[in-house]
Amino acid sequence: MGGMVSSGGPGGTGGTGGVPALGPVAGAHGGLVELLDRRAAMRAALAELAADGDVSWIAEPLTEGGDPAEAGACLVLGQIRGDRTDLLRGLRVPLGHGLTGKVYGTGRPASVEDYLRAKGITHTFDAHIEAEAVRRLLAVPVSRHGRTHGVIAVGARSDGSFGDRAVARVRAVADEAALAIAVAERSRLAREVAVHEERSRLAAELHDSVGALLFAIGSGMAGLAEAAGDDPELTDRLDRLRRQADQASTALRDSLRTLRASPAALALSVTLRADCAAFADRTGIPAELVVLDDPPVLTPDRTDVVVGAVRESLLNVEKHAMASAVVVTAGQRPGGGIVVAVTDDGVGLPPGHRPGLGLTSSADAAGRLGGSVRITSEPDGGATWRIELPC
Predict the structure, then answer these.
(1) Does domain 9-184 have CATH number 3.30.565.10?
(2) What is the pLDDT of residues 115-125, one digit of tens each?
(3) Residue 292: exposure state from Cβ atoms within 10 A (0-12, 13-18, ≥19)
């Protein structure tokens, strides 16, 4: 691709700053960090494309900072390699502008051989490209399962054209980056769910211990006040102590409410994980929740439909499937929305199977929100129930 060469990848010396010299354990740790950290994954992707004379960058959707109106409607060039000026660093690219913004909007790779004279793109950033002496530019979306996470762009400072091998190379790196980002997002979600579960456990312990103690203190104060009889000074002191105990109880309840509250983005995952645990406890059948992508934030009515439908499906597995294991998966729905599936390894569906009242009601509820429910049986046993809802 006119000078583009591989840096050797995560195990080479060019893209990891000499990881092999740190030994195999450090090298494995570095690879794990790249998998579990979104920014590290992006840095590794750029390192794969490092080349003398070339400039490369990754543009990601702006999600925080700056003007709130730009969030979701603007990309930001957060990571760059090979630039000669500071003009590209932190550059914000409105969707559809330049080649980078265009590729993010279309979701398809594109290139131009003479950027400053290219047709079909806006020339919002000609001054930046000219200052970097970039002649031609190739941009590829970083996408997985219909969700675009950003754009990788590689600019060459020499004349020529991008061949099929160069395009395939950048696409392969973009696919690797998308997979690493998906893993990192799942890891982040798992950590957040674990934190919420620990906070919920602490809230329950505080409720059972401190809450019960404060209630007992308040009740005891009320009893002492009645026994104080005609001693106004003692009665007044006991009333003050009782009011203070009531205030402490109110403050504790507010704190417990905060501890138990889960962010909207975690609410569904936390609930589904709890339902899997409850199913396993009452049946002895292991049930695991697997979050395939960072699930979208659902409105309360959609969350209620999904949760109710999953519970109904798990109940049917418990009653009829004779399963030894169950897996619940949740992830992004192609085109937007959510898809949740309940898969078991049981006997499958009998011939001429008709859904019962519970599953039919779930399907009707999903249909009213523009979604659908499907049940399929595998030839060698087992069944999969699936609900899809748009956001």
Answers:
(1) no
(2) 999 999 999 99
(3) middle
